[in-house]
Amino acid sequence: MKQTFRLGTIRGIPFGIHWSVLVIMVLITDILARSVLPAADPAASTGTRWAVAAVAAALFLASLAAHELAHAFVARRHGVRVGSVTLWMLGGVAELADEPPNARADLRIAGVGPLTSAAAAAAFAGFAATGAALGVPATVIASLSWIAATNGLIAVFNLLPGAPLDGGRILRAVLWRRHGDKAGANRTAARAGRMLGGAMIVGGLVVVLLVSFLSGLWLALVGWFIAGSARAEERWTDLREAAEGLRATDIMAPHPDHGWSWQHAGTFIEGVALRSRQSVFLVVNVTGDPIGAVTVERLALVQPRDARVRLGDLSVPLPSERVVGPDVPVITLFHLPPVVGDLVAVVASDHRLLGIITTGDIQRMLRRNRLRAGTPTTA
Asked: Are 148 and 132 in contact (CB under 8 A)?
């Protein structure tokens, strides 16, 4: 989840929000100010209701942040690197850069989230009870009670046994520890998540037709997100399994067609591009180091009058992290989106271009693994 607004770091973990959080802030404030608080205290002024509602919405987002930060802190305690924590429309995401080292760590990382939300629910319920005893205004009591109830609902909802919910992670950890098969546990949790998401989508459509359009739409949206995330996790499990023990040199396309930075585009097109089956070409400098890449589509835009333009001027610069050694584990490349066309990484060593890795090479690796496992491939 990409952060729209970077708010800083918490114990070294980058923390921020996605723009959709602002939409949720407005919706929560509106619900509280127009529905919940007027019912609690009809005599309260409009300004008071909106002010209390805005503070309550901020406190609710803080409780969501606590849920995700709890995942992150426990993950780091078990040696798992945390990329960032981001709040967005449907809650929050703690992006872990590594896999849990064992089933026990997986269980603790997953379980602390619902536990934190349950603790927040109890705390806000206690604040509401104390406030009521002290004669705090009814609007404040109602807001605290709403935050408590919502956190309780989040704790229960997150325990549903399907990825990517915390309950799905707990299911994975239990199955992993019982059977010793992490990949199988991952697939079971992902399938459960797809079923759960599908049921929520169907339920949301029923609610849209029979009860409330907005409530049903929200339920269906959450179900769609859960089902999509579960499918993505299933694909990620397949990729990790296929890449087990493989190095960059094992899946690269060796000796790729390439050009020199000073070479004229027209000469390269006639001599190389028209005869090649590649869709993207590396551009290397005088020392043999890859410095950029150019796609067939970009070359096709070259007009006859521009035939003498140099490849170095046409190419897209190649980030240094995309040039890897032959022994780099393949699994470390999966977090990298294609940089130019379908190019994922360039394999080079000692000023020599050894090969390229494209999305097609990764798909080929995945198909071969399915073939070895006896799983029919649909790609």
From this structure: no
Residue 244 annotated in active site: no
The rounded distance, in Å, linking the Cα atoms of 107 and 102 is 9
Q: Please, what's the largest Cα pairwise distance for the chain? A: 86
Q: Are 314 and 265 in contact (CB under 8 A)?
A: yes
Q: Where are the beta strands (DSSP E) in the chain?
A: 5-10, 13-17, 82-88, 91-96, 253-254, 258-260, 280-284, 290-295, 316-317, 323-324, 343-349, 352-358
- Is residue 176 pLDDT above 80, yes or no? yes
Distances 177 to 28, 106, 160, 186, 198 between C-alpha atoms, Å: 40, 10, 19, 12, 28
Pick the closest to residue 60 from 36, 38, 84, 96 (CA basis): 36
**How many domains is the chain built from?**
3
Q: Which domain holds residue 293?
A: 248-373
- Among the listed residues 68, 233, 234, 241, the single catalytic one is 68
Residue 45: inside a domain, yes or no?
A: yes
**Rounded mean pLDDT of 61-80?**
96
The helix/strand/coil state of 293 is strand
* pTM, to two decimals: 0.79
Encoded amino acid at 195, one letter = M
Provide the pLDDT for residue 250. Answer: 94
Give the end of a domain, one of 222, 243, 264. Answer: 243
